[in-house]
Design brief:
By secondary structure, the chain is mostly helical. The chain has 2 domains: 77 residues; 62 residues. It is 55% helix and 6% strand.
Length: 163
Amino acid sequence: MHRTTSRGRHFHYHNGDAPSVQVEHLSVFFGDNPALDDVSFTLERAERENWDDARLAATLDRDGQEIPSLRGLYRRAVSIVDAPTPAESFRRGVRFSIQDALEEGLDDEEGLERLVGQICHRAADLGYLLEVSGEPLAVYSEELRDQEGLSPYSPLSGEQAEG
């Protein structure tokens, strides 16, 4: 698994050999808190051990109403990191970025620029994955251009495929 960080609600790969998804700077919930490595570890453990929301909220000292969103952010990051191919990781990341932009409102130049920035981050993530794997982009060209199977892999658990 590769190390990830977040920029608000968006997750990105970074060089590193962390054995788990790292959630740093989740300012939506925690502000600029240096203990976010612990939050990432706790979220990973809660998922692995099937903690209920009350236990996770108590452990993180958070309002129980925040827990479903935190779990969702974590699962999205894992979905991107654990995609079966670098191309699918890229697709998932771009899809989540577009979904978020549409939810937040994509009706002005600032919103458009934020989305473009997120897609550029996703392209950098893809470059990192290809560098680590030693594969050229051409290996995934056909998969990236596929229009018939726009979402060839299963959606996240609890979500329905869209399209």
